[in-house]
Design a protein that fits this description.
CATH topology: Sortase, Chain: A
Strand order of the largest sheet: 4-5-7-8-11-12-10-9
Distance between the termini: 42 Å
Shape: globular
Order of helices and strands: EEHEEEEEEEEHEE
Number of strands: 12
CATH class: Mainly Beta
CATH architecture: Beta Barrel
Oligomer: single chain
Strand content: 25-35%
CATH superfamily: Sortase
Number of helices: 2
Length: 285
């Protein structure tokens, strides 16, 4: 697979599509993953040299178009159905009736993620940074740590302007893994990221999509939903399992945006309801 120099790729995840699947041997393959699509930080100190994200943003979508579908190849020899239903090229989960999403919080200083919680699906997992191997592929969480989430450490830090990328396995050869329930996430669900600076960045899910191969739109999958927002992308494999190619035919992509910030150890709470407002006493510098 060709691509611009410096465009990172993902190794394969060993996933399954749903409960009761037979599992077989694991094989790894590479997938290209996004570099920072925009400025890394809104705050006094940038997380990386100015313009780094803008330099790569113009080429990363081509890289993703070529590489996304290799993430999760060679998973099992069994048959299986997708982790979420799909119709057409993209299946989207709409906002439940009566759910009003909170206004976005201004981006804050990016910080290294240590833990991610998604209470609605029972996720409470450590996060580790994953870099690039000698072939330029992003290393996934180790297969002997299936309940660990990987963060693309050279990308956006959670809380900063732009989409931060978190990836996880769906299952192992013996049991469900950390993102097994990701396709069941719905708009309005809370995602909390405990960060190395002692704060918790609070995100709200606003979009859940299952992207199939046909007419895959990488910009839609990985690009900012709205300019000027701090966002998350949580990604795993999904769709129908193809026995012939030993791969899944889709990826589950959950998008969330920053809606609050608080010190770690304090109860969660929503912002004051004003667009772009910061919760009292939690301003980030």
């Amino acid at each position: 697979m060709g691509g611009p120099a410096g465009g990172p790729r993902h190794h394969a995840h060993r996933d399954r599509a749903g409960p009761g699947r037979r599992r077989g041997r694991r094989r790894r393959a590479a997938q290209r993953a996004p570099s920072p699509p925009g400025p890394g930080v809104t705050g006094p100190a940038p997380d990386r040299p100015a313009g780094h994200g803008r330099l790569l943003a113009g080429v990363v979508w081509v890289v993703l178009l070529l590489g996304l579908w290799l993430w999760g190849r060679g998973i099992t020899d069994g048959s299986g159905a997708g982790s979420a239903p799909t119709t057409g090229d993209v299946a989207a989960v709409g906002r439940p009736l009566g759910v009003a999403l909170p206004p976005p919080h201004d981006p804050i200083r990016g910080a290294v993620p240590r833990r991610v919680e998604i209470p609605s699906i029972g996720v409470d997992a450590p996060v580790i940074a994953r870099g690039l191997d000698k072939d330029g592929a992003i290393e996934p969480p180790p297969f002997d740590r299936p309940q660990t989430v990987g963060w693309y450490g050279d990308g956006i830090r959670p809380g900063a302007n732009g989409p931060a990328l978190l990836v996880g396995h769906v299952d192992t050869e013996t049991r469900p893994a950390v993102f097994y329930g990701l396709s069941a996430t719905r708009p309005g669900a809370e995602v909390e990221v405990t960060r190395a600076d002692g704060t918790v960045a609070e995100f709200t899910v606003d979009d859940v999509q299952v992207f199939t191969r046909a007419r895959f739109d990488a910009a839609k999958a990985y690009g900012p939903r709205e300019d000027g927002r701090a966002e998350l992308r949580l990604i795993t494999c999904g769709g129908t399992y193809d026995r012939a190619s030993r791969s899944y035919e889709a990826n589950v992509v959950v998008s969330a945006y920053l809606t609050g910030e608080r010190p770690a150890g304090k109860p969660g709470g929503k912002p004051d309801g004003k667009p772009g407002g910061k919760p009292g006493g939690n301003d980030a510098g």
